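User: My instructor asked us to take a sequence, write out its structure as tokens, and then describe one feature of it. I'm not sure where to start. Here is the sequence I was given:
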Amino acid sequence: MPTVLRIGPYRFFFVALDYPEPPHVHVRRENMVAKFWLDTLVLQRAGGFNRTELNRIAEMVSENREYLLERWHEFFGH
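Assistant: Let's start with the prediction itself. The structure tokens for your sequence are:
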């Protein structure tokens, strides 16, 4: 599960077994993990975060979307 970005308490990472899925990123803080699709920025799974924090995380994903997509294609080779 390579970490591709850290912002404050948040770890942004990919899961190698997710290869067949569309580009997305997992975001962890403590025992909570959200999942965001990257082609069109959409929350796929809230993973225990509240709405306010999810909005903040979505903003971080949006601001770093191009970088995350580049890392996705680099990591998965497609």
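For the description part of your assignment, you could build on this observation: The longest strand covers residues 24-29. Try explaining in your own words what that tells you about the chain.
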